[in-house]
Amino acid sequence: MAQNFIEELRWRGMLHDAMPGTEEYLLEQMRSAYVGFDPTADSLHIGNLVPIMLLAHYQRAGHKPFALVGGATGMIGDPSGKSAERNLLDEKTLRHNQEAIKAQLSRFLDFDSDAPNAAILVNNYDWMSQFSFLDFIRDVGKHITVNYMMAKDSVKNRISSESSEGMSFTEFTYQLVQGYDFLHLYKEHECTLQMGGSDQWGNITTGTELIRRIQGGKGYALTCPLITKSDGSKFGKSEGGNVWLDAKRTSPYKFYQYWLNTSDEDAEKYIKIFTFLTEEEINSLIATHKETPHQRALQKKLADEVTVIVHSQEDLDNAIKASAILFGKSTSADLKDLDEATFLDVFEGVPQAEVSKDLLTTGMDIIGVLAEHTGFLKSNGEARRALKENSISVNKEKVNDSYKIDQDDLINNQFVLLQRGKKNYFVIRVV
Q: Residue limits of the Tyrosine--tRNA ligase SYY-like C-terminal domain (predicted)?
């Protein structure tokens, strides 16, 4: 007997809409469902985490998840929630992106076991690329009326008077192509449920309509809410753009910081959606958090859990260490443990100056370093005063006016961190 997947989504705040009868249908036996992912980049971002978690909970409830990479649909572009068309990709890029996405999904889904509900990755390019235009309009197009297609919000919004762009025929046919995917998976894999964000409802129900009209079968639809932030800004975006799941695009440190900086209201919502913690664990965390909100128990647990799932325990440990460097009592040894990318992330926006490696061979006098070589302080006099006040640190350790900076002070063979007081940092890059 399968667990109650819908009940799990309900208490987590992950259920927006489901076709009548879906809950009962899923409780009868193991069922197959799919979610589509857009392969226009070789990494997913945290905006994709909700549909990924849908599939993960689905598998944990004993059902069989299919992750569909939209190689064909990625070549067209989905009009839902978009106001412009997208660039089209070549097949080699699509295949590369597909493999990278599968590796990321593997952290959430079991693709490799011989369990009957092991996950399967499919690419709609594999069946759509062989389909001629004439066959498609004859075998699929004739079953859906233009009136039906025009009634969808994703179409209405784009061809309304407010939209200056209009909508191309290519995009107009998108819901038919996505609907055909559902029909194909229904026929080939007995896949009877499609899940996605609430903006996908129109595309999903076109699929259930095709299954009904062409196969005389029944497909089901389920959507999750689109995630918002309580302050109205867009979820999943930081100042630098998307927050990616790929460590090369968004470092584990920045990834960790994104979750750590969540507001109390959002953290309470996100911890249910983006972690596998149980209802009891979460309720107890929320209670603890409300007693001492300044300790940010929810944000810390949220950031810990998501960073470990997407990256690893080691990446989380490094991110926590790196975070302590700015805000905690860390040592020069902690600094020297940072890799270059993390070091630059932690000190992003901190003023920098370059000095030549040759100067370090003989050792650089600290007063010259603070003023003349870097301009961190305005003059030698100011540098002397600051040293006398014991407010200057090199790599987090206090120094006096006789200190010389040499090769031993280098972090990653290229950086030295100067600090005045608690908050003023300066990075020397040795070239």
A: 345-428
Q: Which two tokens stand for residue 29?
A: 């036996």
| 200 assigned ligand-binding residue | no
Q: How far is CA 186 from the centre of its chain?
A: 29
Phi and psi torsions of 286, nearest 5°: -65, -40
pLDDT in tens, 77-93: 555 555 455 566 778 88
Question: Whose CA is closest to 336, among 396, 419, 251, 404?
Answer: 396
| DSSP alpha helix (H) spans, 132-222 | 133-139, 146-150, 153-159, 169-172, 174-189, 201-210
For residue 52, what are the CA distances in angstroms to 312, 316, 352, 420? 17, 21, 40, 45
Q: Domains, the chain, ranges and CATH?
A: 5-224 (3.40.50.620), 237-328 (1.10.240.10), 346-430 (3.10.290.10)
d(CA 326, CA 260): 14
> Tell me, what amino acid is at 33?
A
Amino acid residing at 381: G
Count of CB atoms within 10 A of residue 401's CB? Answer: 14
3-class SS of residue 26 = helix
Compute the half-sphere exposure of residue 148: CA atoms within 13 Å on the CB side of its CA: 17
248 annotated binding-site participant: no
Tens digit of pLDDT for each residue in 289-345?
999 999 999 999 999 999 999 999 999 998 998 888 877 677 788 888 888 888 888
Question: Is 425 one of the annotated binding-site residues?
Answer: no
Angle, CA 54 vertex, CA 112 and CA 59 arms, to 5°: 35
